[in-house]
Amino acid sequence: MKQLFGNKVNAGIPTLIENSTPYSSDKEKANLFAVYFASQCFLPDPPANYQLPPVNYITDARLDNVDFIPHEVTEIMKRLNVSKASGPDGISYRLLKVNCHYPRLFSILH
Question: Which distant-in-sequence residues (6+ apart) come within 8 Å of 57 by Cβ?
Answer without folding.
Answer: none
